[in-house]
Amino acid sequence: MQLKKDQLRLWDAGIAVAGLITARRRGFYMAAAKVTPLVAGNWKMNGLTASRGELTKMIAGAGVLASKIELMVCPPATLIAIFSDAAKGSAITIGAQDCDAAASGAHTGDISAEMLADAGARAVIVGHSERRSDHHETDAQVRAKAQAAWRVGLTAIVCVGEQRAEREAGKTLDVVGRQLDGSLPDGATAAKLVIAYEPVWAIGTGLTPTPANVAEVHAFIRQQLNTRFAGDGGTIRILYGGSVKPDNARELLTVAEVNGALVGGASLRADDFLGIAAVYR
Ligand code: 13P
After folding, report:
1. What are phi and psi of 175, to 5 degrees?
2. For the residues of 149-216, what is the DSSP string, one character each?
3. Quick count: other Cβ atoms within 10 Å of Cβ 268?
């Protein structure tokens, strides 16, 4: 009888271990599956109130994708409130392109995260290469902006990416690693943070990295996120950005660890934007 009990205990222990292993494996696969791709359009300094018609077309086409991905449009600040109203209840969320780190005060021309949230934005792009180059934004400033976004519950879409000369010098991973270290605040979760890898030389040029290049950088970013944010690192979305078009979207967005796209020029027209998102149909 005693022997039987011991055998049973052993048997139970075996099942428990096997269960743990399976749960861990399942957990791993579930973690991978839990990442809902995000296709976000960065309209940059384009769009007038008349562009609402294009948003309406996007909303009409977004419904069929709603269960598969998240779609976001980041118009200029002047359109956030009217786009948010127009997109209410639809499969499209509205984001912003930049914010000031301060909540309010004497900063003529700047817009705080509080104001963006008040206007209906759900996310904000920070550290885009055009902000880093045109406005000399540093990693520390980008980090402060991401913290400002979190202060009001906005998702921060933090952009990183190397210049052409840096890629040619074989420094891509060094540059991206440094930008991640300096630009990301502690305590990131999948809801609070999205990374956009945008090689500067691929933005608006029609040039794109090879899928192997994209895979290398995205795997590196994933590894950095896993190290820095432990449990959440595996589910933070990593977008690719830089000359994504409907005809190259499949090649770029099906690369491992690519969880969507940050689209510039091709996000201005509903047909192109939806054509890119259709990769996930
Ligand atoms: P393009 O898609 O126009 O190359 O722009 C990419 C970008 O900068 C998105 O933030």
Report:
1. -65, -50
2. HHHTTPEEEEEE---HHHHHTT-HHHHHHHHHHHHPPSS--TTTEEEEE--GGGTTTS----HHHHHH
3. 19
Active site residue 137: no
> What is the rounded CA–CA span in Å between residue 103 and residue 250?
40
- The pTM for the full model equals 0.89
What Å distances lie between residue 150 and 72, 146, 173, 188, 209, CA to CA? 18, 6, 27, 9, 31
Distance CA 190, CA 31 (A): 11
The per-residue pLDDT for range 226-274, each reduced to its tens digit, is 999 988 999 999 999 999 999 999 999 999 999 999 999 999 999 999 9
Cα 244 to ligand 1 centroid, rounded to whole Å? 7
| Ligand 1: nearest atom to the Cα of 265 | 3
Task: Render pLDDT for 91-149 as a digit per residue (tens, 0 to 9).
Answer: 999 999 999 999 999 999 999 999 999 999 999 999 999 999 999 999 999 999 999 99
Domain at 35-280: CATH architecture:
Alpha-Beta Barrel (3.20)
Alpha-carbon distance 239 to 226, whole Å? 16
202 CA distance to ligand 1 centroid (A)? 8
| CA pair distance 236, 233, nearest whole angstrom | 6
Residue 60: enclosing H or E segment and its boundaries? Answer: helix 52-62
Q: Which atom of ligand 1 is nearest to the CA of 266?
A: 2
Query: Structural domain boundaries of the chain?
Result: 1-33, 35-280
Which two structure tokens, joined as six digits, stand for 179?
Answer: 């930008």
Annotation marks residue 257 as catalytic = no
